[in-house]
Amino acid sequence: MKKIEMEKQAKAFGFATMKFMETKDLEFEHEFRQFCEMNDCGNYGNNYACPPLCGTPEEMEQKVRKYEHALVFQSRTPVQNIFDDAETKIIKKMHTNKTLHAVEELKEQGLPDNGMFIMCGPCNFCEECKAKAKEPCVNETMRFSCLSAYCIDAGKMAKHCNMNMEWNGDVVSFFSLYVF
Ligand code: SF4
After folding, report:
1. Which InterPro entries does the UniProt record give (predicted)?
2. Which of 10, 69, 92, 116 has the CB geometry, 3.0–4.6 Å to 15, for a possible disulfide?
């Protein structure tokens, strides 16, 4: 599988860009966990893929370090109001669905199928995560956590991948990874 071909496909999948990197170049900032603890998103303790249920920052980093390579997806989507959670949540979900679709397609082209997703938002396989009702997760093997839950420094990752981080409030950038 040629890297150049993968990058060309980004547009077809609806991404701004798609880049390969090595997981050794990802930077983990364990102190980012405090932002999850503030629970502005309401998912803290309410989603199995989110802190504290997903694991400690150290455990999360270890999960990623088991893999050598990462395919990083970036979307850049125009927004009416970047501070409107309802609007950005929909875009986040679209980005997640595009990532799931792209990886399925790329597996047909040789992308290893034993990888793991790191998404831009928490696991959303269920309408409402079973963690809320203290019921068991229904999709333990497939559930995905987000970059924040892994304490990945997304800014440094984007810089490493030479991705466009220009920001003037009318475009939102989301990232996801498939590590393999
Ligand atoms: S699969 Fe369902 S129950 Fe499991 S983490 Fe995802 S949303 Fe929660």
Report:
1. DUF2284_metal-binding
2. 10
Quote the ligand 1 centre to 160 CA distance (angstroms). 31
Residue pair 117/144 in contact (Cβ under 8 Å)? The answer is yes
CB of 106 closer than 6 A to ligand 1?
no
Residue range 91-115, pLDDT digits in tens: 999 999 999 999 999 999 999 999 9
| pLDDT tens column, 146-163 | 999 999 999 999 999 999
In degrees, rounded to 5, the angle at the alpha carbon of residue 20 between the alpha carbons of residues 16 and 24 is: 130
pLDDT digits (tens, 9 = 90+) for 16-40: 999 999 999 999 999 999 999 999 9
Residue 127 and residue 71: Cα distance in Å, rounded? 27
Q: Which structural domain range is residue 102 located in?
A: 3-179
